Every structure is written in C-alpha cells, then in structure tokens.
Amino acid sequence: MRLALAKAALQSPDLPLYTWIMGARFAALTQRGSDYFGREQVRFALYLQHDPQTALDMAKRNWDVQRAPWDARVFLEAAEAARQPRAAAPVLAFLQKTKLQDPVIESVARRIEAELKSPAVAP
User: Fold this and answer.
1) CA 91, chain centre distance (Å)
2) What's the pLDDT tens digit per position in 56-79?
3) What is the Cα–Cα distance from 72 to 7, expressed in whole angstroms?
4) Model pTM?
5) Could you tell me if 51 and 19 are in contact, meaning their C-beta atoms sit under 8 angstroms apart?
6) Which of 19, 28, 26 is nearest to 58 (CA)?
7) Is 120 helix (H, G, I), strand (E, B) or coil?
8) What does the alpha-carbon distance between residue 7 and residue 87 come to, in Å, rounded to a whole number?
C-alpha cells in the first residue's frame, strides 16, 4: 500500500499496475471474509480509487472495530472528501473525549467543524 501511495504521489506511469495489485489483494481478502485491513482499504478507496463515498462507508465500518489515530484520520479525510461533515461526528466526539493531539488530524477536524458551522450545511 505504501508503495502504491508513493507511486501516486510521484505520478508514476506504473501507478495503474500498483493500483490493480492492491485492488486484487483487497478483493482476495474480501472473498475470504477478512476486514482486518480496514484502514488500508479506506486509504485505497480514497487515495487510489478516488471514491470518497466508498471510503467513507468503509471508514464507518472500520471505526466500529479500530480506533487508532490513523483510523480517525482516514475517517475524517473520507468524510471531508465525500462532503459529508456530519458523518464525522463519532470521530469528532472521540477526539474531544480523548484529547488526542495530532497536527494532521487536528487540521482536518478544524476544517470539518468549520464546515458544520457554515450556514451552507443544512441541519
């Protein structure tokens, strides 16, 4: 996954191959009934497949199982990318309760909170 993300960041011409490989690996995991790599599947959907809605759906399921800082980060990033700030409520509550400090997570959380306060977001 890290190699595929690096290829994406570098806009490497062989990115489609690495994206296909990761897709095949995740498909094989799904066929075996495994959701152990939820966080990585969220990152794959969000950053390599550019599918924020699928990423957000996966992030919600992953959050029920794993609540590490990386899980919070990808959940927030998926909610932001999907333009569904309200979906981030469980993570925002978790951050407030735990007082987790991470500059990247805090930055995304602030943007989502600002969007929630915006009049453009209907109640």
Assistant:
1) 12
2) 999 999 999 999 999 999 999 999
3) 24
4) 0.86
5) no
6) 26
7) coil
8) 30
